[in-house]
Amino acid sequence: MSVLDDIIVGVRADMAVREAAIGLDELVDRAFAAPEPRDPLPGFRAPGLSVIAEVKRSSPSKGALADIPDPEELALAYAAGGAAAISVLTERRRFGGSLDDLVRIRSRVDRPILRKDFTVEPYQIYEARAHGADLVLLIVAALDDATLERLYTLSLELGLTPLVEVHTPDEARRAAGLGAALIGINNRNLKTLTVDLGMFERIVPLVPAGAVKVAESGILTAGDAARVRSAGADVILVGEALVTHDNPRVAIAELIAAADAGTR
Ligand SMILES: O=P(O)(O)OC[C@@H](O)[C@@H](O)c1c[nH]c2ccccc12
C-alpha cells in the first residue's frame, strides 16, 4: 500500500466516527447556513506571486514540525505578511490537524481558507463548507474519474473553489478535462514522499493557460520561490518553511519579494 492509500484508510475511519455523530442531512443544512464563501481567484490572479500559507503541525515525511498551540495567531501572522489565502491541514493522524483549527482560523482571519485534507467523499465537502472553508483540495491521484467529477461539481455547487492537485502528466490532463480554474502541481509525490521542484517545471506546460497555477511543496527558500515563479507559478503553497520559521510574517514577505525581483 502506498503512503497515500494508507493515509486514506485512516481518513475514512475518522470520518465514520464524525458521521455517526453528525449525519449527512444535518451537515448539508449546516453547509447552507454557513457564512458566504470567499472567492480566492481574484487575489490569485492579481499581479505578483501569491502565497497560500499553510498551518501544519507534522507530516508523514518530516514528522513533528511545530506545536502551533494558537493556530489563529499563526494565520494572523501569515495574513499580515501578505498571504493571499490560508491552508489548514485538517487531517489528524499524520498531520496533527482538526476541523477546530479551521473554525478558529476562519473566525479571525479575513482571507479565503483552504480545507487541506484527503477528500474522498461528498460528506467531507459539506463538512468543509459547514466549518467555513472557502476552498477544498481534490487530489487527483486519490480519485477515480467519476468521483473526481462528482466532488468537483459538488464543490462548485456549494460555492467552494476546488484546488485540483496533480503530480503526473496524466493527472494534469484529467484536471484540465474538468475545466478546473485552480490547478496545483505537487512537487512531493504522495506515494513515495520524495520532493523535486523540477516536477512543477515539467508538468506546468500541460496545464491550460487560463488556469491559475499553484506550485505546492518543497519551497523552502527565496531561491525556490523565484525558481517556480519563473517557471510560471501564479501561487505557491508553503507549509514547512513557514511553520518552522521564527517570524512567519517576515518569511512570507521575503518569499514574495524574491519571486517578484526574479521575474522583473
Ligand atoms: O510543507 P511544504 O513542503 O511547504 O508543503 C506544503 C503543501 O504543499 C503540502 O503540505 C501538501 C501539498 N499537497 C498535499 C496533500 C496532502 C497533504 C499535504 C499536502
Automatic annotation (TrEMBL):
Span of domain Indole-3-glycerol phosphate synthase: 5-255
Keyword Lyase tagged: yes
EC number(s) on file: 4.1.1.48
Known pathway: Amino-acid biosynthesis; L-tryptophan biosynthesis; L-tryptophan from chorismate: step 4/5
Gene3D superfamilies, per database record: Aldolase class I
Keyword terms: Amino-acid biosynthesis, Aromatic amino acid biosynthesis, Decarboxylase, Lyase, Tryptophan biosynthesis
Catalyzed reaction equations: 1-(2-carboxyphenylamino)-1-deoxy-D-ribulose 5-phosphate + H(+) = (1S,2R)-1-C-(indol-3-yl)glycerol 3-phosphate + CO2 + H2O
Gene Ontology MF: a single term: indole-3-glycerol-phosphate synthase activity
InterPro entries: Aldolase_TIM (IPR013785), Indole-3-glycerol_P_synth (IPR045186), Indole-3-glycerol_P_synth_dom (IPR013798), Indole-3-GlycerolPSynthase_CS (IPR001468), RibuloseP-bd_barrel (IPR011060)
Keyword Chaperone: no
NCBIfam families attached to this UniProt entry: PRK00278.1-1 (NF001369)
PANTHER family: INDOLE-3-GLYCEROL-PHOSPHATE SYNTHASE, TRYPTOPHAN BIOSYNTHESIS PROTEIN
Family: Belongs to the TrpC family.
Name used for this protein in its record: Indole-3-glycerol phosphate synthase
Species per Swiss-Prot/TrEMBL record: Brooklawnia cerclae
Gene designation per UniProt: trpC
